[in-house]
Amino acid sequence: MPSQTSDRPGPSSYAFLGPAGTFAHAATQALTGTAEATLVPHGSVTQAIDALRAGLVDGAVVPLENSVEGGVPATLDELAGSPTPLIIAAETFLPVVFDLLVRPGTTQDDVATIATHPHAEAQVRRYLLTELPGTTTALVGSTAAGAEAVRNGEYDAAVAPAVAGELYGLDSLEHDIADNPGAVTRFVLLTHPAPPPAPTGNDRTTLVAYLKHNRSGALLEILTEFSGRGVNLTRIESRPTKGSIGQYSFSIDCEGHIRDARVGDALTALHRLCAEVRYLGSYPRQDGQQSPVPAGRTDPEFTRAAAWLERIRSTGEA
Ligand SMILES: O=C(O)C(=O)C[C@]1(C(=O)O)C=C[C@@H](O)C=C1
């Protein structure tokens, strides 16, 4: 259970991409895991994050990346460019399995229009082309919003989680229709900046780096700061800064915690080299992978090396 992130009294409240029945809803339940928490649905990732910024909730759960479709631009851009800094307090990985949901009595031949979320459409595109040729797909705010719209008679079918079918009284024409079976989406719990939880020994740190100069080797330079300290990156992607064309920031996940010497050292090096480094949180890693610390890069080795340097500086002797 993540720590409460505001001084507001009473049970914690969390915004999520709604309505009820989205994958984001399941992720919010997994991340907040308490019957007392109030879960507040919002129509988009941006609105969920705005509710957090406005102090209406204690946290917001949003998708950050998907194993098939990659990063979620709305989330990455809100984190990179927002005037109110937010941080990631926790992550969870959710298997995403899509059903083709219809009103009871509808057959496959009756389906002319389909509603789903753009990320979901990208994961079932080939299935729709092959199994439902000639249909049109409307991109809506979420998978469950698509299911709700089918219930309301606006579309013939929705691509959504099975639970959305149960919630909106729909039948499943087919289960697990994804083009790439086994897809997973990573969701993160956002809060206002707070001291990071203590390192667990298996953590992840997220940041955004804005390069100082657009010149050859600038990206290599910052990558070298990580690799030289044995800090493995688990994700790096560029996003336009929204200024002039060709200007990009780099959204980065690395193994380790900001309190780990090797990570702290790499981040201070980036701070020297970059126009801006936005720290977005250190939190326990939840993908079942381990973050090994390479030899020569452990905290005690950093401490011994610093003491050695200090001895030389003060006494002239090693
Ligand atoms: O529409 C939903 O159910 C969501 O939770 C959003 C979302 C996404 O943004 O990627 C989450 C997981 C799936 O990959 C498809 C859609």
Automatic annotation (TrEMBL):
Annotated metabolic or biological route of this protein: Amino-acid biosynthesis; L-phenylalanine biosynthesis; phenylpyruvate from prephenate: step 1/1
Keywords linked to the UniProt accession: Amino-acid biosynthesis, Aromatic amino acid biosynthesis, Lyase, Phenylalanine biosynthesis
GO terms assigned for molecular function: prephenate dehydratase activity
Gene3D superfamilies in UniProt: 3.30.70.260, Periplasmic binding protein-like II (3.40.190.10)
UniProt-listed InterPro entries: ACT-like_dom_sf, ACT_dom, Chor_mutase/pphenate_deHydtase, Preph_deHydtase, Preph_deHydtase_CS
Keyword Glycosyltransferase: no
Segments forming domain Prephenate dehydratase: 13-192
Record's catalysed reaction(s): prephenate + H(+) = 3-phenylpyruvate + CO2 + H2O
UniProt keyword annotation of Lyase present: yes
The ACT domain, residue ranges: 207-284
Transmembrane segments: none
EC number: 4.2.1.51
Protein name: Prephenate dehydratase
Organism: Jatrophihabitans lederbergiae
Upper classification of the organism: Bacteria, Bacillati, Actinomycetota, Actinomycetes, Jatrophihabitantales
Underlying gene: pheA
